[in-house]
Every structure is written in C-alpha cells, then in structure tokens.
Amino acid sequence: MVYIKYSLVFLLCAASVALATLAQIKQQLSFVSSNSTNWGNLLNAFDTSGESEAVAIDILIAGQSLSESLALAAELTIANGVLSADDGTDLANIIMLCILDFLQFLDLLVEEKDLFIATPLGVTIQGFILSDLRNLNATSLAFADAYIGVSSSASFVTEAEQIRRELVSVLGAALAAYGD
Predict the structure, then answer these.
(1) Which residues form the signal peptide (predicted)?
(2) Is this model's pTM higher than 0.85 or not?
C-alpha cells in the first residue's frame, strides 16, 4: 500500500512538471519574442543614433540575450517531450510570430553592415556580430530541431522543417555578410 501511495505521488509530481514545462516553454517564447523585438528596435535605431558605438554594443548584448533565450526554449521544449495537437498548435502560433520578426531583423542586420563597419570600432563590432550570429545560428536551429522532435503531427513537422530551412537560408546570408 505504501509503495502504491508513493508511486501515485511520484506520477502526480511528474505530470505537474510536464504541465509546468509547457507553461515554461510558452513563457520562454515570450522572452524570445521580447528579446527579438528589443534586438530589432536597436537595429532600426542604429543609423539614426548619434551614439553609434554605444548602440552597437547594446545590439551585441541584445543578440546574446536572444541567443540565450532561444537556447533555454530549446532545452524546455526537449524536456517537455511530445506535444499534443492542441499544445503544438499553441506553440506553432507563438513561434510563427517570433520567427517572422527574427528573420526580418536578420535581413536588417545584413543591410546595416556598412553602418556598423563605419564606426570607429568597426572591425571589432563586426567580429562581435559574427560571434552573435554564430550563437544565434546554433540556438535557433537547436530550437527548430527540438520543436520538430516533439511535434506529434506531420503538418507541424512539415511547417517546422520549412521554418528551419528559412532560418538556415537567412542566417547563412547574414553569416556570409559578416565574413563567416
């Protein structure tokens, strides 16, 4: 009887962790979205700012924060395990909002490369951005792979694979622009 009681407690705890983890994924994706928006706003402000070096450093820090939030989202997604169709739909909607802005901001980063290089710290900033892009490449693809791995629906897998291909293309162009 004691064995059954403790087993039941363990199962209830395990189930609540899985539910909490799904909530954590959603919360982490909101951090990804916020970090992506912050990064994009800084990119948009760069050419009109009088303090280009300070803004460039802020962009680098924002890129690191975005990369870290993507890495944690990937870890949480894997820890949660296979998603139900409803949970997969919820996450797919959140991911689509995040990814569209992220891809747009990567294009902007490539467009503004000459502005970064023109600053007195141009070569250093280019190196920092290249480092951030490498980190973003690794973490965004890790998240895409995690989402593909836990998707229970073939349509989600197809959609996630398409997003991954877009990420590879846009991140590849950004990495090439900054010298990788």
Answers:
(1) 1-20
(2) no
